[in-house]
Specification:
about 70 residues, mainly alpha, 3 helices
Length: about 70
């Protein structure tokens, strides 16, 4: 019986670990973006380029990634 309980908890832990890794990765991306954007030279370059044009250029790539991820 204890073996059955261990198998059940191992299956659940796999999903929990994947979620934890995904959220950890998102947190690292946000932290890294914050570090990059805290640099005055980068902020000056982004101000010249315009954030709206950068976001508009990134949206098609993001949509393509989400479609591939759902397959």
């Amino acid at each position: 019986m204890s073996v059955e309980i261990m198998h059940r908890t191992e299956n659940g832990d796999g999903r929990d670990k994947e979620t934890l890794y995904m959220l950890g990765g998102v947190a690292l991306v946000i932290f890294g973006a914050g570090l990059i954007l805290s640099n005055p030279n980068i902020r000056k370059l982004l101000g010249q380029a315009g954030i709206g044009s950068i976001a508009a250029a990134a949206i098609p790539d993001l949509e393509r990634y989400v479609r591939l991820r759902s397959m």
